[in-house]
Amino acid sequence: MQQPFRIAPSILSADFARLGQEVDDVLASGADMVHFDVMDNHYVPNLSFGAPICEALRRYGVTADIDVHLMVSPVDDLIRAFLDAGATHITFHPEATLHIDRSLQLILDGGATAGLALNPATPLSTLDHVLDKLSMLLVMTVNPGFGGQSFIPAMFDKLRMARAMIDAGGFDIRLEVDGGINPDNIGEIFDAGADTFVSGSSIFSKRSDQDPNRYDSIIKAFRQPLLQRSR
Ligand SMILES: O=C(CO)[C@H](O)[C@H](O)COP(=O)(O)O
Ligand SMILES: [Fe+2]
Fold first, then answer.
1. Run of H or E including 161
2. 200 C-alpha vs ligand 2 centroid, how far in Å?
3. Pocket of ligand 1, beta carbon within 6 A
4. Where are the transmembrane segments (predicted)?
5. Does the active-site annotation cover 25?
6. Which of 186, 197, 192 is nearest to 226 (CA)?
7. Using one digit for the tens of pLDDT, what is the confidence trace for 185-201?
8. Structural domains in the chain?
Protein backbone atom coordinates (compact mmCIF):
# COMPACT_ATOMS: atom_id res chain seq x y z
CA MET A 1 0.00 0.00 0.00
CA GLN A 2 1.15 3.53 -0.79
CA GLN A 3 2.12 5.74 2.14
CA PRO A 4 -0.65 8.34 2.67
CA PHE A 5 1.97 11.08 2.70
CA ARG A 6 5.72 11.44 2.22
CA ILE A 7 8.10 14.17 3.36
CA ALA A 8 11.03 14.86 1.01
CA PRO A 9 13.66 17.29 2.31
CA SER A 10 15.40 19.20 -0.46
CA ILE A 11 19.15 19.04 0.06
CA LEU A 12 19.47 22.33 -1.83
CA SER A 13 19.28 23.95 1.62
CA ALA A 14 21.55 21.44 3.41
CA ASP A 15 25.12 22.14 4.51
CA PHE A 16 27.04 20.94 1.42
CA ALA A 17 30.28 20.66 3.40
CA ARG A 18 28.80 17.70 5.30
CA LEU A 19 26.12 16.50 2.97
CA GLY A 20 26.27 12.79 3.83
CA GLN A 21 25.74 13.49 7.52
CA GLU A 22 22.93 15.93 6.75
CA VAL A 23 21.12 13.29 4.70
CA ASP A 24 21.66 10.65 7.41
CA ASP A 25 20.32 13.00 10.08
CA VAL A 26 17.21 14.11 8.22
CA LEU A 27 16.31 10.51 7.33
CA ALA A 28 16.95 9.37 10.92
CA SER A 29 14.59 12.12 12.03
CA GLY A 30 11.74 10.61 9.99
CA ALA A 31 12.01 12.03 6.46
CA ASP A 32 10.84 9.57 3.80
CA MET A 33 13.20 10.33 0.93
CA VAL A 34 15.73 12.83 -0.38
CA HIS A 35 14.77 15.53 -2.90
CA PHE A 36 17.64 16.42 -5.21
CA ASP A 37 17.36 19.76 -7.07
CA VAL A 38 19.46 19.92 -10.22
CA MET A 39 19.84 23.42 -11.73
CA ASP A 40 21.83 24.32 -14.84
CA ASN A 41 21.85 28.15 -15.03
CA HIS A 42 20.02 27.77 -18.35
CA TYR A 43 16.55 26.35 -17.75
CA VAL A 44 16.61 28.18 -14.40
CA PRO A 45 18.86 31.10 -13.40
CA ASN A 46 20.80 29.18 -10.77
CA LEU A 47 23.40 26.42 -10.59
CA SER A 48 23.38 23.56 -8.07
CA PHE A 49 24.87 20.07 -8.43
CA GLY A 50 24.84 17.08 -10.73
CA ALA A 51 24.95 13.29 -10.91
CA PRO A 52 28.38 12.84 -9.22
CA ILE A 53 26.86 14.10 -5.95
CA CYS A 54 24.01 11.60 -6.25
CA GLU A 55 26.51 8.84 -6.95
CA ALA A 56 28.61 9.96 -3.96
CA LEU A 57 25.57 9.77 -1.66
CA ARG A 58 24.90 6.21 -2.83
CA ARG A 59 28.57 5.30 -2.27
CA TYR A 60 28.40 6.90 1.19
CA GLY A 61 25.58 4.47 1.98
CA VAL A 62 22.30 6.30 1.43
CA THR A 63 19.69 3.65 0.58
CA ALA A 64 16.58 5.85 0.78
CA ASP A 65 14.75 6.89 -2.37
CA ILE A 66 16.47 9.74 -4.20
CA ASP A 67 13.87 11.95 -5.90
CA VAL A 68 15.70 13.86 -8.63
CA HIS A 69 14.13 17.11 -9.80
CA LEU A 70 15.80 18.14 -13.05
CA MET A 71 15.61 21.87 -13.76
CA VAL A 72 17.83 21.56 -16.83
CA SER A 73 17.46 21.77 -20.59
CA PRO A 74 17.94 19.59 -22.56
CA VAL A 75 17.19 16.66 -20.26
CA ASP A 76 18.15 13.36 -21.90
CA ASP A 77 21.90 13.33 -21.19
CA LEU A 78 21.31 14.12 -17.53
CA ILE A 79 18.55 11.52 -17.30
CA ARG A 80 21.13 8.93 -18.40
CA ALA A 81 23.69 10.27 -15.92
CA PHE A 82 21.22 10.10 -13.01
CA LEU A 83 20.09 6.60 -13.96
CA ASP A 84 23.75 5.53 -13.72
CA ALA A 85 24.17 7.45 -10.45
CA GLY A 86 21.42 5.53 -8.63
CA ALA A 87 18.40 7.84 -8.82
CA THR A 88 15.14 6.19 -7.75
CA HIS A 89 12.83 8.68 -9.39
CA ILE A 90 13.46 11.36 -12.04
CA THR A 91 11.20 14.33 -12.74
CA PHE A 92 11.75 16.89 -15.47
CA HIS A 93 9.92 19.95 -16.81
CA PRO A 94 8.00 19.43 -20.06
CA GLU A 95 9.31 22.73 -21.52
CA ALA A 96 12.85 21.41 -21.17
CA THR A 97 12.67 18.67 -23.80
CA LEU A 98 11.44 18.53 -27.37
CA HIS A 99 10.08 15.02 -26.89
CA ILE A 100 8.27 14.56 -23.60
CA ASP A 101 7.15 11.00 -24.22
CA ARG A 102 10.62 9.90 -25.38
CA SER A 103 12.31 11.42 -22.31
CA LEU A 104 9.79 9.73 -20.00
CA GLN A 105 10.40 6.40 -21.74
CA LEU A 106 14.17 6.87 -21.33
CA ILE A 107 13.65 7.07 -17.56
CA LEU A 108 11.38 4.01 -17.47
CA ASP A 109 13.71 1.95 -19.67
CA GLY A 110 16.54 2.79 -17.25
CA GLY A 111 14.64 1.30 -14.32
CA ALA A 112 13.62 4.47 -12.48
CA THR A 113 10.15 5.91 -12.04
CA ALA A 114 9.23 9.06 -13.93
CA GLY A 115 7.57 12.37 -13.18
CA LEU A 116 6.73 15.68 -14.80
CA ALA A 117 7.02 19.04 -13.05
CA LEU A 118 4.61 21.83 -13.92
CA ASN A 119 5.62 25.43 -13.30
CA PRO A 120 2.93 27.61 -11.70
CA ALA A 121 1.71 28.87 -15.10
CA THR A 122 2.05 25.55 -17.00
CA PRO A 123 -1.39 23.99 -17.52
CA LEU A 124 -2.39 20.49 -16.47
CA SER A 125 -3.35 19.78 -20.08
CA THR A 126 0.39 19.42 -20.79
CA LEU A 127 0.05 15.97 -19.22
CA ASP A 128 -2.56 14.73 -21.67
CA HIS A 129 -1.46 11.52 -23.40
CA VAL A 130 1.45 10.73 -21.04
CA LEU A 131 -0.32 10.18 -17.70
CA ASP A 132 0.13 6.40 -17.98
CA LYS A 133 3.92 6.84 -17.81
CA LEU A 134 3.94 8.96 -14.64
CA SER A 135 4.46 7.84 -11.06
CA MET A 136 4.57 11.43 -9.85
CA LEU A 137 3.16 14.80 -10.84
CA LEU A 138 5.13 17.65 -9.32
CA VAL A 139 3.12 20.86 -9.02
CA MET A 140 5.63 23.66 -8.51
CA THR A 141 4.26 25.98 -5.85
CA VAL A 142 6.97 28.57 -6.53
CA ASN A 143 8.75 29.45 -9.75
CA PRO A 144 11.70 27.07 -10.02
CA GLY A 145 15.29 28.06 -9.40
CA PHE A 146 15.63 29.03 -5.76
CA GLY A 147 14.85 27.79 -2.29
CA GLY A 148 13.30 30.03 0.31
CA GLN A 149 10.45 31.49 -1.78
CA SER A 150 6.80 31.84 -0.67
CA PHE A 151 4.06 29.39 -1.66
CA ILE A 152 1.86 30.81 -4.48
CA PRO A 153 -1.78 30.66 -3.22
CA ALA A 154 -3.21 30.19 -6.76
CA MET A 155 -1.70 26.69 -6.62
CA PHE A 156 -4.45 25.51 -4.27
CA ASP A 157 -6.91 25.43 -7.17
CA LYS A 158 -4.39 23.77 -9.44
CA LEU A 159 -3.80 21.07 -6.83
CA ARG A 160 -7.52 20.40 -6.50
CA MET A 161 -7.76 20.09 -10.29
CA ALA A 162 -4.73 17.81 -10.43
CA ARG A 163 -6.15 15.57 -7.69
CA ALA A 164 -9.48 15.35 -9.53
CA MET A 165 -7.70 14.47 -12.78
CA ILE A 166 -5.62 11.71 -11.15
CA ASP A 167 -8.57 10.22 -9.28
CA ALA A 168 -10.99 10.42 -12.22
CA GLY A 169 -8.55 8.50 -14.42
CA GLY A 170 -7.74 5.95 -11.69
CA PHE A 171 -4.01 6.65 -12.06
CA ASP A 172 -1.44 5.56 -9.49
CA ILE A 173 0.34 8.94 -9.50
CA ARG A 174 1.62 10.74 -6.43
CA LEU A 175 0.93 14.46 -6.28
CA GLU A 176 4.04 16.28 -5.11
CA VAL A 177 4.33 19.93 -4.12
CA ASP A 178 7.59 21.85 -4.11
CA GLY A 179 8.30 25.36 -2.89
CA GLY A 180 7.35 27.32 0.20
CA ILE A 181 5.97 24.34 2.16
CA ASN A 182 6.12 24.61 5.95
CA PRO A 183 4.31 23.27 9.04
CA ASP A 184 1.81 26.16 8.92
CA ASN A 185 0.53 25.51 5.38
CA ILE A 186 1.11 21.77 4.91
CA GLY A 187 -2.30 20.75 6.27
CA GLU A 188 -4.21 22.98 3.87
CA ILE A 189 -2.02 21.78 0.99
CA PHE A 190 -2.78 18.16 1.90
CA ASP A 191 -6.50 19.05 1.96
CA ALA A 192 -6.13 20.36 -1.61
CA GLY A 193 -4.90 16.93 -2.70
CA ALA A 194 -1.11 16.79 -2.36
CA ASP A 195 0.46 13.67 -0.83
CA THR A 196 4.20 14.26 -1.25
CA PHE A 197 5.82 17.33 0.28
CA VAL A 198 9.20 18.77 -0.64
CA SER A 199 10.74 21.28 1.72
CA GLY A 200 14.23 22.73 1.83
CA SER A 201 14.72 25.95 3.74
CA SER A 202 12.01 25.27 6.35
CA ILE A 203 13.71 22.01 7.32
CA PHE A 204 17.42 22.67 6.99
CA SER A 205 17.27 26.12 8.60
CA LYS A 206 16.07 24.36 11.77
CA ARG A 207 19.25 22.39 12.38
CA SER A 208 20.70 22.56 15.85
CA ASP A 209 24.35 21.63 16.26
CA GLN A 210 23.76 20.78 19.93
CA ASP A 211 21.10 18.15 19.25
CA PRO A 212 22.32 14.80 17.92
CA ASN A 213 18.88 14.10 16.37
CA ARG A 214 18.77 17.57 15.10
CA TYR A 215 15.83 17.44 12.69
CA ASP A 216 13.41 15.47 14.89
CA SER A 217 11.28 18.40 16.00
CA ILE A 218 10.95 20.04 12.57
CA ILE A 219 10.07 16.76 10.80
CA LYS A 220 7.52 16.08 13.54
CA ALA A 221 6.05 19.55 12.97
CA PHE A 222 5.64 18.73 9.27
CA ARG A 223 4.03 15.35 10.00
CA GLN A 224 1.66 16.41 12.77
CA PRO A 225 -0.99 18.19 10.61
CA LEU A 226 -0.91 15.25 8.17
CA LEU A 227 -1.29 12.60 10.87
CA GLN A 228 -4.30 14.44 12.26
CA ARG A 229 -5.94 14.47 8.84
CA SER A 230 -5.15 10.96 7.61
CA ARG A 231 -6.33 9.13 10.74
O1 LIG B 1 12.76 22.93 -6.70
C2 LIG B 1 13.05 23.76 -5.88
C3 LIG B 1 13.34 25.16 -6.30
O4 LIG B 1 13.23 25.27 -7.67
C5 LIG B 1 13.20 23.36 -4.43
O6 LIG B 1 12.94 21.99 -4.29
C7 LIG B 1 12.26 24.14 -3.54
O8 LIG B 1 12.36 25.51 -3.73
C9 LIG B 1 12.40 23.76 -2.08
O10 LIG B 1 12.86 24.80 -1.34
P11 LIG B 1 11.99 25.62 -0.26
O12 LIG B 1 11.29 24.62 0.60
O13 LIG B 1 13.04 26.40 0.45
O14 LIG B 1 11.01 26.47 -1.03
FE1 LIG C 1 12.67 20.77 -6.28
1. helix 155-169
2. 8
3. 10, 12-13, 35, 37, 69, 71, 142, 144-149, 178-181, 198-202
4. none
5. no
6. 186
7. 999 999 999 999 999 99
8. 7-207 (3.20.20.70)
